[in-house]
Amino acid sequence: MTISRERVLQELAEIAVPGGGNLVSQDLVRALSVESGLVRFVIEAGDAATARALAPVEAEAQRRLSALPGVEKVQIVTTAPAAPRGAPPQVVARSGGASDPPSLKIGRHPTPQAGPAPVGGVARIVAIGSGKGGVGKSTLTSNLAVALARQGRRVGLLDADIYGPSQPRMLGLTGQRPTSDGQMIEPLHAHGVTVMSLGLMMKEGEAVVWRGPMLMGALQQMLNQVKWGELDVLLVDLPPGTGDVQLSLCQKAQVTGAIIVSTPQDVALIDARRAIDMFDKLKTPVLGLVENMSTYVCPNCGHEAHLFGHGGVAAEAQMLGLPFLGEIPLSLDVRLAGDEGAPIASGDGPVAQSFARLAARLIADGLA
Ligand SMILES: Nc1ncnc2c1ncn2[C@@H]1O[C@H](COP(=O)(O)OP(=O)(O)OP(=O)(O)O)[C@@H](O)[C@H]1O
Fold first, then answer.
1. Where does ATP bind (predicted)?
2. Ligand 1 atom index nearest CA of 133
3. Which of 35, 61, 250, 287 has a CA positioned 20 to 30 A from the CA of residue 260?
4. What pTM does this model have?
């Protein structure tokens, strides 16, 4: 027997909270997820003191839900935003190790919206996806952004990879925080690119409990409450796979299309096919495929090797009738540059040229 979401909410509505009402009537439950006996949610308090006062409520919810038939495990996290609700706008230092997220309350319920909407000032939104993790999607996004900026395009990069936000590190923004006046977020800037990362708005460890509506609300805020300015293209670095973020983005924003990154191995390609299917279902055009970690050129002897095979992505693109947009070689320098926060595309070597070619192709195709 499995438990339903409605039954969980019914139980939570029985639990009184200090000050009157119950967990549900006071709208304290966020990101409720009920999946095969595992119940997870966040109790979101207005401030830290209220969160502490809610400890017995959390314990009672834990006890009551655990006792319900069909519930195997209950995970509850009680959180409070950085600033109390209704507090005057608070500006967080732009840099210098500020560790708290900006004061804008993020992860609210989504605002009703008729359908996918454009983002003011942003001409195109291009999602960068992959079926499988670790194929170099974030590396490609940061380098492509830099390559496009070097070719005179006005580029934004939204890091929506909530489970492993890596753009701040790859772009040399570690330790910096965006600022907020409580209404709008001032994004960061690096290598000619306007940058915002969902990860920078969250407290550590928060992403794991985020689900459906909460993610959708947060993504909506990233699109509409960030001062992106006038952009030719906004690149969105998606988490790997086919989940809530992909769904939310395509439902809420008018996405021009998606680029799928894959390595040439069969397993990566199978996952890439799944990602393509998902975008098809969401009616988001797939703009083409890119092969990453294609060829390895030995820095000592110049010998070319194909560690993960070669040409698999081009063949797959042809089979699916999709454009093959380009290939990026496997090179230790790509990783080192990413780790140092100076994307390789900001230099002049052969890999930078691969990214420049990819950027030029997108511009020529009217996609950036
Ligand atoms: N062309 C390349 N040559 C060498 N190393 C690369 C290349 N592309 C990516 N990498 C390295 O591979 C690792 C994974 O890359 P990256 O984080 O971009 O992948 P991802 O697909 O975004 O992963 P995740 O699933 O974590 O989102 C990183 O250490 C990165 O530096």
1. 131-138
2. 25
3. 35
4. 0.73
